[in-house]
Amino acid sequence: MKKLFLILTILLIVSSVDAKILKRTKKPLVEIGPKASLYIGSVRFGFGAEVVFNPLKNIGFRMDLTELSFGDYTQFHLNYVGSFDALITIPMRGLRSMQPYLHCGFGFNVLGNEETTTTFSIRAGMGINYPWSRTTDLFIEPGIIIYDPGPGDSETIFRLSVGGRFGILR
To answer: Residue 135 belongs to a domain with what CATH number?
Structure first.
């Protein structure tokens, strides 16, 4: 756990360093956008929307707003498993048109009907933003989700997401 914390701290420090080589427009403070996701584990396909809050130049925070997914059955979720992810942009020399980033996060949800069910998930991966215009980015994002739906069970799901983000507040 200490090593993971140390690695995340180093990534945070390195990504927040202002690289003078990168000359790009400032990101919008709030972005919202649609996305399509392919889940491989139990094969599912989903359409959804997310919101990204960018308080710093190289760090953003994301929450999934909604998703409609299809597979063996259809599901509709509002902020599935209480998702919260950090997006850390990696400064790269010579890549002015594409911006690679890391994403990592967690989800926590408590459901109570006749029994109380607690679910937990950890997500991580990488992605690439392609600036389409000053306020619009296109992205592709492979990742992994480790999901714990209850005692004794856990699933590993691979996810590939593509979509766009539109700046709504600068």
So the answer is: 2.40.160.20
